[in-house]
């Protein structure tokens, strides 16, 4: 019986090598779960006007930074000790790249928490929270599915995430137009609405990072770099 994509990275003679690769994948997924929750918590703090929660989220960013350093060291040591080739090297290189994306998602969550704290002190903005909730749900789902695609080595699901990025961009542009129109009608709300616009921008960036992770999943599975490649061309690489 042919090996599935799920175990294509676990068939080495050295059990320790298998364990090293499994640990790298698991540690990456732990970091992914953390930054996903950080983003969700930051958005909730914003909508609830919870300054204490927002401040606590900002403090937790140090954990994300430390996990990034640990994963970079883990990947570097794996290369030095095992000298992986072909698909194994693709996995390690992809993880190094994706760890950077996860750290930046953590940074975006920290930014959202910063504006949540500002709005908790200044008072809720009169508009924009529905759009924030909608786009936040969209991009955190993308991030979750990108992590799942990595876990299952599913390039087909990764391609679906890449397709979603255009929808997020459209939703972000529509939301910013709505807020800009509102600010032009009532200049008293400019400061608070601008905070919401920066939150929307941070969420749009989370979607970009989820897309980057999906591109790296395709690289891991298919051996093709689809960055800066039209979606239609990437679809040909992934296949039906």
Identify the notable features of this structure and list them briefly.
single chain; 240 residues; mainly alpha; Methane Monooxygenase Hydroxylase, Chain G, domain 1; 8 helices; flat
Lay out the secondary structure.
Layout (H helix, E strand, L loop, with lengths): L14 H34 L2 H9 L1 H22 L3 H37 L6 H24 L2 H31 L4 H33 L8 H8 L2
Structure characterization notes:
The structure is a single chain. The chain is mainly alpha-helical. It has a single domain (13-238), classed as Up-down Bundle (Methane Monooxygenase Hydroxylase, Chain G, domain 1). It is 82% helix and 0% strand. The chain has 8 helices and no strands. Helix 1 runs antiparallel to helix 5 (129-152), helix 6 (155-185) runs antiparallel to helix 7 (190-222) and helix 6 (155-185) packs antiparallel against helix 8. It is flat, with a radius of gyration of 20 Å. The two termini are 21 Å apart. Keywords: Cytoplasm, Phosphate transport, Transport. It is found in: Cytoplasm. Residues 29-115, 132-217 form the PhoU domain. Its main location: cytoplasm.
